[in-house]
Amino acid sequence: MALDKLLLILLIVIPPVSANHSATEEKNNHTKKELENEDDNLSQEPEERRRYHMNRESKQGKPVMAQNGQSTSRAEKNQQKMVKSKEAREIEELYQIGTKILKRSRDKKLRKEGYKLLMKAADNGSTKAKERIAYALLFGDQFRQNVTAAKDLFEALAENGSHKAQTALGFMYATGIGVSSNQPKALVYYTFAALGGNLVAHMILGYRYLNGINLPRHCEAALIHYRTTAKYVADSVALHGEMLTEKIRLTERTENFSSNGEIMDLDRYQYYKFTAEKGDLQSQAGLGQLHLTGGKGIEQDFKKAFYYLSKAAKGGNTHALGFLGKMYSEGNEVVPQSNETALMYFRMAAEMGNPIGLTGLGVAYLHGKGVQVDYEEAFKYFKKAADEGWVDGEFQLGVIHSSGLGVKRDYKLAVKYFHHASQAGHTLALYYLAQMYGSGTGVVRSCLTAVELYKKVCEQGQWTKRFLSAYFAYKENDIDSAFLQYLFAAEQGYEMAQSNVAYILEYEQPALISITDCYQVALIYWNRAAAQGYPYARIKLGDYFFYGRGTKVDYKTAAIHYHLAAEQKRSAQAMFNLAYMYEHGLGTEQDLNLARRFYGLAAEMSTDAHLPAFLALLKLDAIYLVNLVQYTQLSEVWKQINMERLIWQHWDLFLIMILTLLLVLLITFRHG
Fold it and tell me: Which run of H or of E encompasses 206?
């Protein structure tokens, strides 16, 4: 209880973030320089704290004494400062170049060079480089995975106030990786990391307060933590656009990794590249968009994006024209920011009815980018884009109605547009909607709804890149690396990471966890994934209690989980399992009628269940006949057999059986 009180007191100290936010450039407090290196922008140190340290250093400054006891001359001091400043710039440059390589490339040789630069920066005292190397040691990225070395480095960094190191130590104590599990210690590290401004720590604490994991359930506390992280993510998206990172569910990717729809394999990429060079406009536009956004596992490359989009635009592809306008509107290291050029491409695309061009023109008129501010024109273009089904157009209409720009302020209409856009996963729409539910603007205030929306926003942050690196590690059979990366994401509350962790524990048994503990730990993460609505995880819970994996056999609890999966998610597997339990009276009273009903429902919900359900129903009918024979005369049994129900309902299966028998007889006679 004392620890809970301490944590709640510390929580109050964390300043709540204002609910007011806008995607417009006029109201965006983050400059491009602040968001240039997203890996370093995980802390938000208050301005007052920086001023305090600066004043303190100036007050405590003492003249440097030479060996002869006299003060060093001012010229020498200035020269020393210049040397130190030059060294600091060189170290920072090493770090920035190394980080840029790691962010932009998955090529092992390039990443090795990136880490060499970080090592050099770390040797010269760069704290940020040391943090990056410590995480690389923990996850086994280009370094041989060494949890003990990572722990030692994190502890040294944490002593000097590194919030990233504190978060990592909190993770290690929470999961028992490299140390003995200690939940109170983990919470202390997470709390101080959050006080230091670490956004991942805020996210972890938000998830724990929301679900009551080693903390009392506290929706308002969860709201504060999630809102802090969500604000940063929303600001980043408003400035740089959506970041696409595929999240792959291992439970659905067990046989053929190359067949999944989220990651584009090398053969398919080479095919699209070949057709693009041959002049196929769709391939050119598609590759350009993928390289622009970094989608489907393709590395973000503005140079390649511009190359392919330019070729497609020359051929008249409207999407390519729209994306080129977007590139010039935002600007990057390949394409300079130019409102004039952006407007040219947007107009060309809009004239052909392209929603990207229409939205781009709307944004230009809304914010006065290269044209005079004209809210009516902006509304007109956004409406046309929304009518085309373009999600960003709907979001911008929500902004206009919520802010009253050129129209009468209408929160209900704004909520409608934000809701439509949020259904498609639009990050800023989710954020605006969360603000409205958090403050009760235009809707009845709901802390829980606001938290769930903020959580979705947070899960679009840059840390989602961990999913892709974890997937590739798993694909390369580096199980321990994949396991730890998914485990870190699971701590942040990602349901898919939780189910992936449980899957690896059950089927791969990583070396970092004792074999005897794998089922027990997997049970925890299946439970967390099920609590977030994943039906397969709910079925897995039923299986664990049915077979006694990681827990005692408990048929009653297993039946409860199967019931939940069957009723809430309409799972055919859960229905079949539940039917079996009713048939045999396991965890519930034996009821053959309910068993028959659930077998039938399972067959209706999935074609895969047709044959097993048919055989199970056939078995039930056989049991019914045996019972009749035992208690009635044989002549009456035939009268009570409902042949229409028995045969006509499954006539196709009976026909297959008869044809199969005839085929077998035919083959036998021919060879006889």
Answer: helix 199-211
DSSP 212: T
65 strand-pairing partners: 71
DSSP state of 109: H
320 is written with which tokens?
């390519």
Per-residue pLDDT reduced to its tens digit, 313-346: 999 999 999 999 999 998 988 999 999 999 999 9
pLDDT tens track for 286-308: 999 998 988 787 888 899 999 99
Length of the chain: 672
Task: Using alpha carbons, list the distances in angstroms from residue 81 to 578, 645, 669.
Answer: 75, 93, 101
604 forms beta bridges with: none
Q: Of residues 72 and 446, which shows the higher confidence score?
A: 446
Nearest partner of 72 among 85, 62, 83, judged by Cα: 62
Look at residue 443 and give its three-state secondary structure. Answer: coil
d(CA 138, CA 175): 13
Report the C-alpha gap between 3 and 597 in whole angstroms: 51
Is pLDDT at 6 greater than 50 in this prediction? no
Nearest CA-CA partner of 304 in 320, 316, 288: 288
pLDDT confidence tier of residue 636, bands split at 50, 70 and 90? low
Task: Decide: 328 and 337 in contact? Cβ < 8 Å.
Answer: yes
- CB contact at 8 A, 588 and 581: yes
Using DSSP's 3-state secondary structure scheme, residue 71 falls into strand
Q: What integer pLDDT is reported at residue 59 of this predicted model?
A: 42
DSSP secondary structure, 474-487, as one string? HHTT-HHHHHHHHH
Binning pLDDT at 50, 70 and 90, where does residue 630 land? low
φ and ψ at residue 599, rounded to 5 degrees: -60, -45
Q: Greatest CA separation found in the chain?
A: 124
Give tens-digit pLDDT for 31-65. Answer: 444 444 444 445 444 444 444 344 444 444 444 44
Q: Interhelix angle for 572-584 vs 592-605, to 10°? A: 160
Q: If residue 287 lies in a helix (H) or strand (E), which one and from where to where?
A: helix 281-293
CB atoms within 10 A of CB 68: 5
In the chain, the amino acid numbered 487 is: L
Q: Could you tell me the CA-to-CA distances from 537 to 219, 427, 574, 603 in Å, in that order?
A: 25, 26, 11, 21
Q: What is the Cα–Cα distance from 169 to 188, expressed in whole angstroms?
A: 10
| Residue 269 φ/ψ, nearest 5 degrees | -60, -45
Instruction: Report whether 96 contacts 37 (CB < 8 A).
Output: yes
Q: Of 382, 407, 406, which is closest to residue 394 (Cα–Cα)? A: 382
What 3 state SS string does 546-574 have?
Answer: HHCCCCCCCHHHHHHHHHHHHHHHCCHHH
Distances, alpha carbon 548 to alpha carbons 217, 538, 554, 577, in Å: 29, 15, 7, 16
Q: At what angle do helices 2-13 and 219-240 cross, to 10 degrees?
A: 40
Q: Chain-centre distance of CA 579, in angstroms?
A: 35
**Which tokens sit at 464?**
């989602």
Q: Hey, what are 435's tokens? A: 């603000």
Question: What is the Rg, in whole angstroms, of the alpha carbon atoms belonging to the chain?
Answer: 31
- Whether the per-residue pLDDT at 493 is higher than 50: the answer is yes
* Cα–Cα distance, 214 to 151 (Å, whole number): 23
Helix (H, G, I), strand (E, B) or coil at 205: helix
What does the alpha-carbon distance between residue 104 and residue 482 come to, in Å, rounded to a whole number?
20
Q: Give CA 87 to chain center in angstroms.
A: 39
Q: Is the pLDDT of residue 1 over 90?
A: no
621 vs 38, more confident: 621
Helix axes 339-351, 318-330, angle to 10 degrees: 160
Long-range contacts of residues 578-581, Cβ cutoff 8 Å, at least 24 apart: 579/613, 579/616, 580/616, 581/555
